[in-house]
């Protein structure tokens, strides 16, 4: 299964598996037993490059330079009165790219494909050459994964996708299904060989123990993930924490972390513990490559750009103070409902997405 750009894990596989097992066990501890949440727990951010009015980081071992803030794809076609029109979505993406925001997030299942379609339109007129395009698929079988990838390529109107991620790794059997014979990874390795995708990662919002298992199964198969996407926010450190569990594993594996749910869609924001830019600066101050944030209005894009341009690493003292403010609101998981409910679980509400090759 050794392929180009893989880490040479043949001799490190057993050690990596042991690390993930230990971290998964730690993730199940109660808050009372957990170590105090301090900035020192999570490590420093990667080197930040200030260039042309935007800040960038290198994406793990890929040598790709990506903006420290990324445009979330779901919000580009968010339904309801507050969602943007197609024209507004295109303007948001192009304004972001013009400002130096080159990381574009999306997913095969977002808004019945409309999010990818709108991003594809925004990437015309030369904007594709200035963007790092990421999308995600739900398929767990080789057939479903390849079918969904082909659909995404068509919607996005691109010849290749820079980063393809396995979406919603939220069940304990998801890693085994993806790495099984005839599983989704087989298709994505083939797609990478064909030049349809460049890098491979995975995402999830439910449990750090499941993320840890994904790394463990990958190590058993001598496979290296280029990226991992997970919640990173001012509440996570206090409750079933991805930051505690996955940051050390990702660092060990040299896997770039993509931060999401800075505002908790929007329950972290609604707790009114901190101002939005302060929350973004906290996430940027963690060992992450990109902070992905939803921009369904121009003002939210402008807020994200301002946060990136004004970013300076938060001191350990400032982070501790912020975490002390957030602790009371965080302990029962009410501000991180994606961890404790199925409301955010698209593949739970639509289980057919895991096996269908084409949209219905």
Give me the side-by-side strand order of the main sheet.
4-5-6-7-8-9-10-11
Q: How many β-strands, per DSSP?
A: 11
Number of helices: 14
Unreliable segments (pLDDT under 50, ≥5 consecutive)? 1-35
Percentage of β-strand residues: 5-15%
CATH superfamily: NADP-dependent oxidoreductase domain
How would you describe this protein?
This protein is an alpha/beta fold and 360 residues long. It has one domain: TIM Barrel. Helix content is 39%, strand content 14%. The chain is built from 14 helices and eleven strands. The protein has helices at 13-27, 86-98, 114-122, 142-156, 174-179, 184-193, 208-220, 242-253, 267-270, 276-284, 298-310, 316-330, 337-340, 346-349; strands at 49-51, 54-58, 65-67, 69-72, 103-104, 132-137, 161-166, 197-203, 227-231, 256-260, 290-294. Helix 1 (13-27) runs antiparallel to helix 7, helix 4 crosses helix 6 and helix 7 (208-220) runs parallel beside helix 8.
Question: How are the SSEs ordered, and which strands pair?
Answer:
Blueprint: H1 13-27, E1 49-51, E2 54-58, E3 65-67, E4 69-72, H2 86-98, E5 103-104, H3 114-122, E6 132-137, H4 142-156, E7 161-166, H5 174-179, H6 184-193, E8 197-203, H7 208-220, E9 227-231, H8 242-253, E10 256-260, H9 267-270, H10 276-284, E11 290-294, H11 298-310, H12 316-330, H13 337-340, H14 346-349
Parallel strand pairs: 4-5, 4-11, 5-6, 6-7, 7-8, 8-9, 9-10, 10-11
Antiparallel strand pairs: 1-2, 2-3
Helix pairs in contact: 1-7, 1-8, 2-3, 2-11, 4-6, 7-8, 10-11
């Amino acid at each position: 299964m050794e392929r180009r750009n893989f880490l040479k894990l043949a001799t490190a596989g057993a050690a990596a598996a042991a690390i993930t097992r230990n971290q998964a066990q730690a993730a199940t501890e109660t808050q009372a037993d957990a170590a105090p949440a301090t900035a020192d727990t999570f490590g420093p951010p990667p080197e930040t490059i200030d260039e042309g009015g935007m800040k960038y980081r290198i994406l793990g071992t890929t040598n790709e330079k990506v903006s420290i803030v990324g445009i979330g794809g779901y919000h580009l076609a968010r339904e309801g009165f507050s969602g943007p029109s197609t024209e507004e979505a295109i303007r948001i993406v192009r304004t972001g790219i013009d400002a130096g925001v080159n990381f574009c997030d999306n997913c095969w299942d977002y808004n019945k494909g409309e999010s990818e379609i709108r991003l594809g339109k925004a990437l015309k007129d030369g904007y594709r050459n200035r963007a790092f395009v990421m999308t995600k698929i739900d398929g767990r079988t080789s057939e479903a994964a390849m079918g969904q990838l082909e659909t995404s390529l068509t919607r996005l109107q691109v010849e290749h996708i820079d980063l393809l991620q396995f979406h919603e790794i939220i069940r304990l059997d998801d890693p085994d299904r993806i790495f099984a014979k005839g599983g989704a990874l087989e298709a994505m390795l083939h797609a990478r060989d064909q030049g349809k995708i460049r890098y491979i990662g995975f995402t999830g919002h439910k449990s750090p123990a499941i993320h840890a298992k994904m790394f463990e199964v990958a190590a058993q198969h001598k496979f290296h993930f280029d990226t991992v996407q997970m919640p990173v926010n001012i509440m996570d450190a206090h409750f079933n924490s991805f930051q505690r569990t996955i940051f050390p594993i990702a660092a060990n594996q040299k896997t770039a972390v993509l931060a999401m749910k800075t505002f908790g869609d929007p329950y972290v924001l609604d707790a009114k513990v901190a101002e939005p830019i302060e929350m973004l600066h906290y996430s940027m101050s963690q060992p992450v490559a990109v902070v992905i944030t939803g921009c369904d209005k121009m003002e939210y894009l402008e807020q994200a750009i301002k946060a990136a341009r004004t970013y300076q690493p938060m001191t350990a003292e400032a982070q501790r103070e912020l975490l002390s403010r957030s602790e009371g609101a965080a302990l029962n998981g009410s501000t991180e409902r994606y961890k404790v409910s199925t409301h955010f679980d698209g593949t739970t509400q639509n289980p057919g997405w895991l096996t269908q090759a084409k949209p219905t």
